[in-house]
């Protein structure tokens, strides 16, 4: 009898456990369903002409006001978006924007004429943007600029300001009027499998621009445009860039630095295992020739492959694009210290300050050729060391012989 009671009690416990598990599963999934905001359900139309901006703002308000993690879902289809501003802080630290469709901007260059950004996130902690396409419709503005007419500056397609714990995965930003993706004053940013694409002659269309930000990682991404694939501005630290395909474009650049007299520096940047194809430049550090307390230190370019790149390696402390409004100052204060080039696979140029020259440069196993000919190198006020096989032969000066650099090209 006692054995029967024990077996019956155990059976009840098992049934109760299964019932409670099912009940918990139901409530969890019901809660998750309530916290997924489908923009079509909220009234958006994938007809390429009805402005989905108000619906996106409504979805954001609901997600941001939730104390639980929330998702804004953009289904398949093409949704016209005039412009959107997603502001925080929010009540939760886990908002996902899941995009299966395409968000498309206006082709009218005057719609965003007074806006610096098309899609803007402000003061968000715990933002994830996954998949999808954002199309900035930049061609009409590019054409206007090429014509020499008076045109708007343009808007960045996606801008994130004062963000923390940001994750962007699988997003494609195409045809941006200006920069494809911008990060300003952000912390702990992770981007992977990102595509940022624009025409090779599109003006000022940096793929990804980062400034005043720390702990930024960009991995396994494809970037091609009419300007820098990735540009790294003042105040950036602890940035890791790996397995990037760059081209067309102007390469990966630190700078331009030295725009202001008081400026935060760039520290601890690594670019690794990346390929540059058909770009104007490869890896570059550029600063204006004017007094500034800015700097770039602990910078590493490693295992880089370059194919048909006009200027593979450049350090330029007298940067002046288009030769307009050049400061014309010889004695400037940008410091470049501990810059490492390792295993770069025609032209090697270091143009550094006569007062605060580049120091701690290292060239390790550099092999640059142009149409089966050995490339040339030009160094000015650049101090450092070489090791391994370095072609073209290193023109860096040692500390004992600085500033007598070898300059076979007569560069000045």
TrEMBL record:
InterPro entries from the UniProt entry: Glyco_hydro_28, PbH1, Pectin_lyas_fold, Pectin_lyase_fold/virulence
Principal subcellular localization: secreted
Gene Ontology molecular functions: polygalacturonase activity
Transmembrane segments: none
Record keyword Hydrolase present: yes
Record key words, sorted: Cell wall, Cell wall biogenesis/degradation, Glycosidase, Hydrolase, Secreted
GO biological process: carbohydrate metabolic process; cell wall organization
Protein name: Polygalacturonase-like
Organism whose genome encodes this protein: Cucurbita moschata (Winter crookneck squash)
Lineage: Eukaryota, Viridiplantae, Streptophyta, Embryophyta, Tracheophyta
């Amino acid at each position: 009898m006692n054995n029967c009671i024990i077996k019956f009690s155990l059976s009840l416990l098992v049934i109760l456990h299964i019932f409670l598990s099912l009940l918990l599963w139901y409530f969890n999934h019901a809660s998750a369903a309530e916290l997924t905001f489908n923009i079509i359900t909220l009234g958006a139309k994938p007809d390429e002409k009805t402005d989905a901006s108000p619906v996106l703002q409504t979805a954001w308000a609901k997600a941001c006001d939730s104390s639980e993690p929330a998702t804004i879902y953009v289904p398949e289809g093409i949704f016209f978006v005039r412009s959107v501003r997603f502001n925080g802080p929010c009540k939760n630290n886990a908002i996902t924007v899941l995009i299966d469709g395409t968000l498309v901007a206006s082709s009218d260059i005057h719609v965003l004429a007074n806006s610096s950004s098309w899609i803007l996130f402000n003061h968000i902690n715990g933002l994830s943007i996954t998949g999808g396409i954002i199309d900035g419709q930049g061609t009409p503005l590019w054409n206007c600029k090429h014509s020499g007419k008076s045109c708007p500056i343009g808007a960045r397609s996606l801008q994130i300001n004062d963000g923390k714990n940001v994750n962007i995965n699988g997003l494609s930003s195409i045809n941006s009027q200006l920069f494809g993706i911008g990060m300003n004053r952000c912390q702990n940013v992770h981007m992977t499998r990102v595509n940022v694409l624009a025409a090779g002659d599109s003006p000022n269309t940096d793929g990804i621009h980062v400034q005043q930000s720390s702990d930024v990682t960009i991995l396994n991404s494809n970037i091609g445009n009419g300007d820098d694939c990735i540009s790294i501005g003042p105040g950036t630290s602890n940035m890791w860039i790996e397995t990037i395909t760059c081209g067309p474009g102007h390469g990966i650049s630190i700078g331009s630095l030295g725009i202001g007299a008081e400026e935060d520096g760039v520290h601890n940047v690594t670019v690794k295992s990346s390929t540059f194809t058909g770009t104007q430049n490869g890896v570059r550090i550029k600063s204006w020739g004017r007094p500034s307390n800015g700097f770039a230190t602990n910078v590493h370019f490693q295992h880089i492959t370059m194919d048909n790149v006009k200027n593979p390696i450049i350090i330029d402390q007298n940067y002046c694009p288009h030769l307009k409004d050049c400061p014309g100052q010889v004695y400037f204060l940008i410091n470049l210290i501990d810059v490492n080039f390792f295993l770069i696979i025609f032209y090697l140029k270091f143009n550094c300050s006569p007062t605060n020259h580049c120091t701690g440069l290292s060239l390790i196993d550099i092999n640059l050729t142009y149409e089966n000919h050995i490339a040339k190198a030009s160094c000015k006020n650049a101090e450092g060391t070489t090791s391994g096989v370095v072609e073209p032969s290193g023109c860096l000066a040692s500390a004992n012989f600085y500033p007598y650099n070898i300059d076979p090209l007569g560069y000045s």
